[in-house]
Amino acid sequence: MATVAEHLIRRLREVGVRMLFGVPGGGGNLDLIAAAGRSGLPFVLTSTETGGAIAAIAQAEITGAPGACLTTLGPGVASVVNGVACAYLERAPVFVLTDNYASTDQDRYEHQRLNHKALLERITVQSDTLAPGSAFASIEAACFYVAPERSSAGPVHLDCPADFNQPDLQPTNYAVAEVTGYMLADGTRGTGSPSTTNEELLRHSRRPLALIGLGARHADHAARIRKLCESKGLPAMVTYKAKGVVPDRHPWFAGVFTNGAIEKPLINESDLIIGIGLDEVELLPRPWTPRSYVRYGPAPASAVLDGIRQVETCLQQTEWHATEVHGFHHAQRGQIMIHAAGFTAQQVVAVAAATLARDCRVTVDAGAHMFPATMLWPVSEPNQMLISNGLSTMGFALPAAIGAALLERERPVVALTGDGGLLMCIGELLTAVRERLKIIVIVFSDASLSLIEIKQQARKLAPAGVALGRMDWPSVARGFGAGGLAAENETELERAIETALATSGPTLIEAKIDRSNYGATLKAIRG
Predict the structure, then answer these.
(1) More confident position, 466 or 36
(2) How are beta strands 385-387 and 20-23 bridged, if at all?
(3) What is the pLDDT of residues 436-472, one digit of tens each?
């Protein structure tokens, strides 16, 4: 008979999980790793539990199928919370599998005992325990909740007590009739289906603007949206997560949308905003009240596709001209090309993108460097740029690059990170070395939590608690067994990238930057 662990691993493979990430414990995790090994599902040891979760998020976003991570009980579950929260606010389907005491012992011991469900149930779409008599229904429910047609994509949690791995004593056709349409309480997803009102707004619009969000990243969505823009003369802006749905070099690409000041000129020239796959979690937390607005999605995928069909049918040829749209985009890029005395983040992005953007996937960490990165790095396909937008967590870029690189070992991945974010996950460099991954980490080195420092400056406060201190990043990288290089100008960065491309494993490049233009850059984008 198959055991619960074997059945769970089989179902993970059937729904598209490519590998397990995480830091194991000594209980039910060991059964899962053993079962995964027997079935050919790789287990990748990461340095941190959150790193494992973020690597799983990257794989979920790239493949469209769920990712998976596991942790030990107690401290392992506490440590993975940030990664699970990231999956929750990025709308990423990820299985989170946690160890626990045997079901008969959970009330007997206090050592390392935490209420796992209480920790995770508010940041997952389902949290359950694999218990005798209901384990298989729980597994099936979890698979149901991460299915791509769901309106509430996100992580699911399965607690695996030490005695969960019993033989399969349930019939193969057990029912899961109780698993019905689950929707998050916030009610913000799955709205905006085609309606008569939408029809009328579309038919009367002459200068509409499409805002493309995370729910429109499927390949079929991207193809339809590009064709729609071309056939109707429809300009489209993309969120960070939707970069590549409409490529940066597409004639109807109108820039990046965050609900900031830099987009307002084009917004103000529009008579209708068409949200396709747009999720409120992607917007800056400030009021946004477009004069006229229709919205499709962000989930399920079928709602987004239905919306695209309605726009195709009802929207007339617009009065926009491609040169006009290009002018808006060109003006946006020009606004952030702010010079400084030294080597700027804008220069780093421009130099790196010139060599790497065409062939490499890129991951971007939270921090001041993300503004030039998201605006200036050209992307031509969905999920070619991976970024934490909903949670905007630091420490994202490197573990996300690991998840991506493991899917396509021959394709280099570039991780753009600040020094503060890299400090939070530097142990994952060892994971990249151990797995021999082609990752180029470019760290924007300015010895400061620059984004927080900018906000202190805006409030006329003295810098406090933001100075990191200088690191010798190349030496740190070499200590992990990776390549380590440094650059203080464009020529040195070009040479470092050339060396990194010729290296078989991971390379870290320290770009020593002048951060003095960050404040002006942030003001240009956000106002």
Answers:
(1) 36
(2) unpaired
(3) 999 999 999 998 888 888 888 888 888 888 888 888 9
User: Where would I find the beta strands (DSSP E) of 371-513?
Assistant: 385-387, 413-418, 439-445, 483-487, 507-512
Cα 289 to chain center, whole Å? 26
Pairing of strands 507-512, 272-276: unpaired
Mean pLDDT of 274-301: 88
Residue 70 token pair = 């596991």
> In this model, does residue 171 exceed pLDDT 50?
no
Distance CA 522, CA 527 (A): 7
Tell me how far apart the alpha carbons of residues 11 and 141 are, in angstroms, rounded to a whole number: 11
Contacts of 96 (CB under 8 A, 6+ apart): 53, 68, 69, 70, 71, 80, 84, 87, 120, 124, 155, 156, 157, 158
Three-state SS annotation for 317-372: CCCCCHHHHHHHHHHHHHHHCCCCCCCCHHHHHHHHHHHHCCCCEEEECCCCCHHH
Put the strands of the sheet holding 126-129 in their side by side order: 43-45, 20-23, 67-71, 94-100, 156-161, 126-129
**pLDDT, tens digit, 9 for 90 and up, residues 123-142:** 999 999 998 888 888 999 99
Helix 397-407, helix 49-63: angle, nearest 10: 50
With contact defined as beta carbons under 8 Å apart, do 2 and 131 qualify?
no
Q: What is the mean pLDDT of residues 507-516?
A: 95
Query: Residue 274's beta-bridge partner residues?
Result: 210, 294
Residue 161 to residues 25, 97, 98, Cα–Cα distance (Å): 11, 10, 8
pLDDT tens digits, 178-221: 333 322 223 333 344 566 688 999 999 999 999 999 999 998 89
Tokens standing for 340?
């400084």
End-to-end CA distance of the chain: give it in Å, rounded: 63
> Crossing angle, helix 518-526 and helix 322-336, to 10 degrees?
150
pLDDT, average across residues 257-285: 93
State the virtual CA torsion across 365, 367, 368, 369 in degrees, nearest 10: -20
Q: Are strands 439-445 and 413-418 parallel, antiparallel or unpaired?
A: parallel
Helix H segments across 258-341?
Answer: 264-269, 301-314, 322-336
Domains of the chain, earliest start first: 4-161 (3.40.50.970), 196-332 (3.40.50.1220), 338-526 (3.40.50.970)
Helix (H) or strand (E) holding 293: strand 293-296
Q: Label the pairing between strands 236-238 and 253-256.
A: parallel
Confidence check: pLDDT of 101 > 90:
no
Q: What is the pLDDT of residue 133?
A: 80
Averaged pLDDT, 155-169: 82
Assigned token pair, 387: 């970024």
258 band by pLDDT with thresholds 50, 70 and 90: very high
